[in-house]
Amino acid sequence: MRHIPRRGDRLAAQLGRRVRARALRAGRAAMILVLAASSAGALLPAASEAVIGPRPCDLYARGATPCVAAYSTTRAMYASYVGPLYRVERSDGASANIGDLGSGYADAAVQDRFCAGTTCAIIVLFDQTPNHNDLTIEGPGANGDQDAGVAADALPVTVARHQAYGMSFAGGMGYRDNHSQGIAIGAQPESMYMVTSGTHFNSQCCFDFGNVETSGRDTGNGHMDAIYFGSMCWFVWPICYGRGPWVQADMENGLFFSDTGASKNRGDTGNANPFVTAMLKNDGTDTFAIKDGNAQDGPLATEWWGPLPRSRFNPNPPSFRIPSPGKPGETAIVNPKLSGYRPMRKEGAIVLGTGGDDSNAGVGSFFEGAVTWGYPARATDAVVQANIVAAGYSSTPSAPAGERPAIQLASARKAQRIRLVLVCPTGCSVNVSMTLPGATARRLGLPRRSLLTLRRSINASRSIVLRLPAEAIRLAQSARLSRLGVLARVTASAPGAASATRTALVSVGLGAP
Q1: Are the CB atoms for 289 and 256 separated by under 8 Å?
Q2: CATH architecture of 403-509
């Protein structure tokens, strides 16, 4: 069994680095062997996987492209992984790690008991590789404020008939590690995949997972290599077939379908399956590939395999601007020069839920994902997809849409207030919590992040206006803040219907009420 200590075991860490170094040196030579031996015999399970079966990172290791970062809130990414999957924090500040049942699947019951009668957010997503590239809630970046963590119970799911929770990103939410170990930098090769959802997305920037800048700023073309999933057509000459959502490569200052940005594949009209496998591979110097598939059935489709971006346009484009597609209030340069992607200039930070500069208006879902060293063979891609399908992801059954509660959250017309709109066709019970992001609470000198908790029964649709606590308003105004970002979370439960949860980071004005 492979027991991974979470922290502090220096000897184990040194051993892990030595093993990884040997694997990386052997990577290119071993890849040739994998390409030559892409039969079932090359992918037989090891004895240690007899009970649980191989997992994605076991399969990548066999293909000589080992995982260097791996995350999931639903299952272990190695058959022998021992450790927590993620950490939740209650609104009272208490926290708990959520591990697995011993079968390799998340123990959702522990979370349910810990969070019962209160609200919880995911604050850490643990890296299951020896690198310990844990993702924590993302701080402010060049194009985004302090992010919030996702609601821990907002996305119930079933995997291999086990109850678990995915991560539902509602905008203003993200996770990051700017000090990772073992991730590809510069022109080094890598690949990554995630399981997401084709029913939860938007056209804003940017729901990403992958390799980004260590500074939280846009440092130029080729400094990112991340999967984007959504319905944005980035470039001024967009050719996007269908309505999406699409898997694209976010390589900074562009979401790419191909070497020119635009889609060259009329068959790539989007992937609207409830569970989607999104995959990106980049050799760092010449080639990248985009693949996607139904995470519940069937093989992967190759949407692009070819050269990295290089401009086919005038290398000195005219310097006029037009409104930027999908980014209201911003502009984009016509005919941007596609330089800097051959070779790539990756920096090695890891992000989930936002762009490299913390552009955090995108929404999406995340169930599992990994970043690897090297450029995997097609046979490895195929067996990883087969493993995901075999995991048996399915949505938790719920009542018809007409019976479910509906929730809207926004700042109210009057300053210092949040407006909550509830639609409860059959009546419902409502739990409301308002908290401050940790960095904001520390800036204001508040010992607790919690601002307000409220429980109420609603017999019909109604609008409720909630006022911020006077103490928080006074401290924010003393700190010369004109607005305050408040994380509002509402859960509404109706008899015989699945509960609805809405979490939003609401910007509240602090002027005269």
Answers
A1: no
A2: Sandwich (2.60)
